Amino acid sequence: MIAGLRSSFTSGESVIHLRKVFRNSGLRSGAFSDLFRQIGGFIHEWTPFLLVTCYFVFSVCVYTFCGDAVIAIFWFIFLASNFYIAGTTVLEAFLSLGPTRDARKAVQRVQSRDWTFPTPNDDLLFVNLLIVAYLPNEQDIIMDRINYALDEIKYPSHKIRINLLYNTPKSIEPLETELIELASKKSHFRVIKVENSKSKADNLNYYFTLNTGGDIICIFDADHYPHPYGCRWAIERFMQEKNVDVVQGRCVIFNSKASWLSSMIAVEFDKIYAVSHPGRTAMMEFGLFTGSNGFWRDHLLRDLKMDGSILTEDIDSSLRALARGCKIVHDLNVISYELAPTDIPAMWKQRLRWAQGWTQVSMRHCFLSWKKACEGDRRGFGMRFGLLSLLLVRELSYYLVTQYFCLILSFVFTQFPKSPRSLATFIFFPYPVSQWFFIISVICLLATLIITFRIRSEFVSKRSMTIFSVIYPAYLLFNATQGLYGHARQIVRYSRWNPTKRT
Fold it and tell me: 95, 216, 298, 415: which could join 282 in a potential S-S bond, CB 3.0 to 4.6 Å?
């Protein structure tokens, strides 16, 4: 067999002869194709890892050969950029205090009237609530979430329809029969199975082709427990502000005690949904639909649809709406409780999908920062600056954070510190200007975490908040590495959808 292979390459008929050799060796052409497909899939899967690994190794090696003057320039650039990021973050945190105060006052007013809202029930908008599920991953929880939505959501039943949109590559019984039987008993519940669907975007786009009527569409992932009054708060926002097109609510992690990892994600989500998103809306005049617990005006979402080629189709739809001049707001009283991954592999798959998706939308929509606005577009300086920071600076920050880490690592290799004091000097204070950048950045970080602590959810403990504060630099490095991985996946055109397992 080996001799046959050697002769084939010398004769210039390698491909034909190779097939004959494998056929004569007992391997069928189908098995031969499967083997090469598996090898190709393996290479495609691991190429991003090799690219990111080479990036870190190469960067450290470069810094070990740089002179002191070049190192000083790099050091200043990295610290200045980190200072900018820390300053923007703390400014968002301070501006989030206003929406937080307003949300609490609104709750107090409604509570004082025995949970009577301003709008009479008969005047409320009709809501189509969509629960989007991939049954193989969510078959263990879906009945619980459906029953919860039917029984606990405080909204007039004649003004809401709860729709289950699901796809599955195989029949899952008796679950599917149970869902159909439940729909026959509940007039405001409908089950829609989407054939040949491969993603959440496919499910939603199929629904948009149906003539269901209604004023508002709200979307929830299958692991969510919407707050009983969350839907009512969102509709009141639409009723009070006629120019609002999308209301995005606050997502809270409720399984924070399931593992150490889920407790950290719970803190992270409080920082994102209770601090960053409201603060950005106040400072930069735009919000984002984040995929779940979001409420859209029906005609707008049906017109935009979801782009299934983008892994974060929710962010893409938000930016396309902003390009039309639509207004997206965040409301802290529109609360929904969701599950966080409880182990590293599940979180890694989820975050890599998000990272690559953000890369895709940044490449597609970064022009919104500078392109001339069309008629009716609301893009002022604040929004343009915010979009530039969100889409371009955020993507570049992955390199700034990781390069700072590589620079420090090169110091360890070239001038290994002999004491803790010398280590601290090398990491933080090798140049006079570093002291100011470092101290101000730390103050910004502490201020952001203190504000997050003040408005944390009931599922975040003081202990979790303390641990998160201590590991925050490592968290930033972890996020930056995932961002690089997302870039590498985009380079190799990785397109596999890895849904998150729900338990």
Answer: 95
Q: How far apart are the first and last CA of the chain?
A: 51
Instruction: Give pTM, 2 decimals.
Output: 0.86
Pairwise CA distance, residues 463 & 169, whole Å = 42
* Strand partners of residue 221: 132
Per this entry, what is the length of the chain?
A: 503
How far is residue 337's CA from residue 228's CA, in Å, rounded to a whole number? 11
pLDDT digits 0-9 by tens, 95-151 = 999 999 999 999 999 999 999 999 999 999 999 999 999 999 899 999 999 999 999
pLDDT value for 6: 40
Burial 395-417 (b: 16+ CB within 10 A, else e): bebbbbbbbbbbbbebbeeeeee
Residue 174 backbone phi and psi in degrees, to 5 = -85, 10
Report DSSP letters for 375-396, one per residue: TT----HHHHHHHHIIIIIHHH
**336 phi and psi, to 5 degrees?**
-140, 145
In 3-state terms, what secondary structure has residue 25?
coil
The pLDDT of residue 81 is 81
Q: What tokens does 1 get?
A: 């067999």
Distance of alpha carbon 39 from its chain centroid, rounded?
Answer: 31
Amino acid at 333: N
Tell which phi-psi region holds residue 403, choosing left (phi > 0), alpha (psi between -120 and 50) or beta.
alpha
The DSSP bridge partners found for residue 192 are 165
Ranges of the chain with pLDDT below 50: 1-12, 15, 18, 21-22, 27
Structural domains of the chain, ranges and CATH numbers in brackets: 96-342 (3.90.550.10)
CB 87 within 8 A of CB 444: yes
Among 57, 194, 51, 67, smallest CA distance to 132 is for 194
List the structure tokens of 148: 């919860």
**pLDDT tens per residue across span 240-288:** 999 999 999 999 999 999 999 999 999 999 999 999 999 999 988 899 9
Q: Name the β-bridge partners of 163.
A: 130, 190
The pair of structure tokens assigned to 458 is 């009931």
Distance CA 20, CA 15 (A): 9
